[in-house]
Design brief:
Blueprint: H1 4-14, E1 17-20, H2 25-38, E2 43-49, H3 55-68, E3 72-76, H4 83-86, H5 92-110, E4 115-117, H6 130-137, H7 143-146, H8 151-161, H9 186-200, E5 208-212, E6 215-219, H10 225-230, H11 232-240, E7 246-249, H12 259-266
Parallel strand pairs: 1-2, 1-4, 2-3, 6-7
Antiparallel strand pairs: 5-6
Helix pairs in contact: 1-2, 5-6, 9-11
Length: about 270
Amino acid sequence: MPELDALRDRLRELGPMVVAFSGGADSAFLAYVAHDTLGAERVTVATAVSASLAGDELSDCRALTSEWGVELVEVETDELANDEYRSNDGDRCYWCKSSLMDALAPLATEHAGATVVLGVNVDDLGDHRPGQRAAAERGAVFPLVDAGFTKADVREWSRVLGLRTWDKPAAACLSSRVPYGTPVTVEVLGRIERAERALRGLGFRELRVRHYGDTARIEMPIGDLERVLSARADVVDAVRSAGYAYVTLDLEGLRSGNLNDALKSRTR
C-alpha cells in the first residue's frame, strides 16, 4: 500500500488546487487530505450541481464538508443543455467532464491559477472512461494515480484517517443508469433517483436502478438478492411509485459500469 506521504508530497508539488468533490470515497479522501496538507487558503473544494447528481449525494457533500470544517463551493453545470450529452452515445462522460471543467476553470483562475484535481484512482484507468480524457485534455490532474493509490488503498487510508466514506458504496452519476443510445432527460433522471431513494428507504444500501423505458432493472449485490425477494412486494411498490410499470431483478447482481459491456459489443 502506498504511503500517505507520497500523496501529500504530490499535492505540495501541485500547489493551489480546486478539488472536484462528488462525495464518493475517492473524492472525499482527496479533498480531505488536500485540505489537511495545503490548508484552506490553497484548496477549494467544489461540487458540480446538476440533474445527474442525486439530491441525497449533494446533501452528503454538504454534510461531509461541514463535519470537516471545510467550505464547500457549489457550481452549476449544464451538461443537459448539450445535445451530444443528451443523446447518450458512448462518449456521454466526455461531455459531462467537459462541462465540469468549464464550470471549475473560473474557480481555478480566481485562486492564483490553481490546478483542477479529480479523485481518479489507478483502478479507474482500465475501464471505458472518456471523461478522464476530457478532464486531462483541459489540464486536470489525478494525484491519486500519480501517487499509486488503488480503490482499496483509498478505502483503507480513509478508514485509518477516520473518514466515514471509507466503506461508502460507489455512487456514480444518475446518467450512468441509462443504457447508451437512450436519451438522457431530466424526467428520466428524476425517475431513477426516486426509485433508488425508495429502495434505500427499505434498508438497501448498495444498488443501481437501470432505466429501460417503463421497465426498471434492479441490481443489488449477490448477497442481498434473497432479501430483495423476501421483500418483493415492498420492492415492487417502491419502484412503481417512482413511475415504472415493470420491475425486474438482475440475477447477476450489482456490477459497476456494466453498461459499458454493451457498448463494447457494439464496437466489435
